[in-house]
Write a structure and sequence with these properties.
The protein has five helices and eleven strands. It is α+β, with helices and mostly antiparallel strands. The chain has two domains: 118 residues, Outer membrane lipoprotein wza domain like (Outer membrane lipoprotein wza fold like, Roll), CATH 3.10.560.10; 89 residues, wza like fold (2-Layer Sandwich), CATH 3.30.1950. The N terminus and C terminus are likely disordered.
């Protein structure tokens, strides 16, 4: 199992970015203004008063887009609301009243990872909204040896480290505990243990670093 999970995680640590996939018009939810753009995302820039500047761009592998009048702009890791404000500020140097809307047309294919005591551990797609319980269902469900009350959600943080959340998924499948079924983000790791983990922080450090024979930072920094 270790070799399977290693194969799954290596693309993330080596900076691999999958190609764009489904579009919003094909069934994915239109993202909120808090959506963070990724490499491979395709979006429209629409001007209320200057439609001649409307264009569709793709976030390049270097995380940037090239736009009319203002040139190169960083887009990867930037929320839609923040990019809208930035573009309006930059275009204000050339236009009297730039009012802009950004519409994401195609989302880069996002991944997350489910490991441990599930039927099919490994990488799965993140098609818009997905919760921890749903991700485990996509991984074939719990094995009989799973500790459903001790599931770990490992997520990157802005400092480049790991934030770990302990979840009781046995309780989460009841109406009273439904709030514990958290929504997932790209590159989250859901781990279902076989036995109780006494020291979670120590275990996460060993789990991450001893399973990869390379020097790396586990989570890419968020800018």
């Amino acid at each position: 199992m270790k070799s399977v999970f290693l194969w799954v995680l290596l693309p993330v640590f080596l900076g691999y970015q999958p190609a764009a996939s489904q579009s919003a018009s094909q069934g994915q939810d239109v993202p909120p203004s808090s959506y963070t753009l990724r490499k491979g995302d395709v979006f429209d820039i629409k001007f209320f008063y200057n439609p001649e500047l409307n264009e569709q761009v793709t976030v390049r592998p270097d995380g940037r887009v090239a736009l009319q009048l203002i040139g190169e702009v960083q887009a990867d890791g930037v929320q839609l609301a923040g990019l809208t404000s930035l573009l309006e500020e930059r275009y204000a140097r050339n236009l009297a009243n730039p009012k802009i809307t950004i519409l994401v047309r195609n989302f880069a294919l996002q991944k997350l990872f489910v490991d441990g005591e599930v039927v099919k551990p490994g990488m799965i797609d993140l098609p818009g909204k997905l919760t921890v319980v749903q991700s485990i269902a996509l991984a074939g469900g719990f094995r009989e040896t799973a500790r459903e009350r001790d599931v770990l959600l490992i997520r990157r943080n802005a400092a480049g480290g790991a934030t770990v959340t302990h979840l009781d998924l046995k309780q989460a499948r009841t109406s009273e505990g439904a709030s514990a079924d958290l929504p997932l983000e790209p590159f989250d790791v859901v781990y279902v243990p076989r036995s109780k983990i006494a020291n979670v922080n120590k275990w996460v450090d060993e789990y991450i670093r001893k399973n990869l024979p390379i020097t790396f930072t586990f989570f890419r920094p968020v800018y």
